């Protein structure tokens, strides 16, 4: 009985000491508004990492810390500044979540994120940006080295990449970065800029690799891609950030520009004009438009593979088939060869081919068809001086010739 009384008294004395310590600490903080108060968060390794809070004014409640005026919070590699912040703690006093308002800005490994409201879930290092979210993701040296090695293999890449070309700039309504999962999400009016790549979409999911760098970006909902000077419209687009490979599926339409303007400002002006007009530009005389169910494009070799209900139109040439491959000349940057696979049809002015395999030379307009080939040649009928409109045949001054025989 005596032992129980002594133990109970010791416990009471210990609690009183803790309460006195907390009270003294609170008084110090309240008397010194700019004082840096450190919370601790338990790590998987068992070690604690401090959360450093600085502000003009701090108020300590039961499980909350309210900071106002020139707020700055540091935790590991994250540095957040704002006008106001509220930090929530658990029963043990460890920081769990911080809500920042008033022009908040987060910097993490040179990458930044801004929004109307920033929520930093400290325990799992998840960052939530709500309202006019803007972020800049800076690639680490490992990612830049991988990108440079790919560019070195491109024979037509004569200009070195400018600083910041690998940075990923994202604007949207809301954004979420989950470090534990290795995932970045953007929703609502998504706009992404990276080097010569510009993308508009409704949603974006970006996946990170084991090295901590973004590897794959998946865009969904009314996707528009401008990879100067070419354009792609689609329901969904997957883009490899390290391989520069674009895969589009769902109502895909691409426009390949054969003669881009030789102007240092053409790239920027082209992007600005398309956004301002909010409509497709008129097709140029040498532009190639391809529609299909799905398309795969690699900027490394300039090859486009279209699959499913493929349709092509360009100047005097059009084609259709189940599969098509478009190849680029590495020296000129123009499309020089197009191949249709499966039962396909290609048309030129006055001529048409149907075959299982059709190749076109875009420079010479020559067509090579093989496999159950059928050629159709439309010949102009010579007009007589006394011919009247009533003398025209049903083809409108045209006669159809098949295998050398005219069909009336």
Mean pLDDT: 77
Q: Structural class of the helix and strand makeup?
A: mainly beta
Number of strands: 25
Proportion in helices: 10-25%
Report strand order across the widest sheet. 5-6-9-10-8-7
Q: Low-confidence parts lasting 5 or more residues at pLDDT below 50?
A: 15-44, 149-158, 276-284, 389-408
Give the CA-CA distance, first to last residue: 121 Å
Beta-strand portion reads over 45%
Could you state the order of secondary-structure elements as H and E?
HEEEEEEEEEEHEEEEEEHEEEEEEEEE
Morphology call: rod-shaped
**Main β-sheet: number of strands, strand sense, barrel status?**
6 strands, antiparallel, barrel
Number of helices: 3
- Compute the CA-based radius of gyration: 32 Å
Walk me through this protein's architecture.
Helices cover 13% and strands 55% of the residues. Residues 15-44, 149-158, 276-284 and 389-408 have low confidence and may be disordered. It contains 3 helices and 25 strands. The chain has a 6-stranded antiparallel beta barrel with strand order 5-6-9-10-8-7. A hairpin with a 2-residue loop joins strand 18 and strand 19 (317-328). It has a domain at 30-131. The chain has 408 residues and is mainly β.
Summed up:
By secondary structure, the chain is mostly beta strands.
Structural descriptors:
mainly beta; 13% helix; 408 residues; 3 helices
Which SSEs are present, and which pair or pack?
Layout: H1 2-31, E1 37-42, E2 48-54, E3 57-60, E4 64-75, E5 78-89, E6 95-101, E7 105-108, E8 111-114, E9 117-121, E10 126-137, H2 141-152, E11 168-178, E12 183-194, E13 197-208, E14 214-227, E15 230-240, E16 245-256, H3 266-277, E17 288-298, E18 303-314, E19 317-328, E20 335-348, E21 351-361, E22 366-370, E23 374-380, E24 398-402, E25 405-407
Antiparallel strand pairs: 1-2, 2-4, 3-4, 4-5, 5-6, 5-7, 6-9, 7-8, 8-10, 9-10, 10-11, 11-12, 12-13, 13-14, 14-15, 15-16, 16-17, 17-18, 18-19, 19-20, 20-21, 21-22, 21-23, 23-24, 24-25
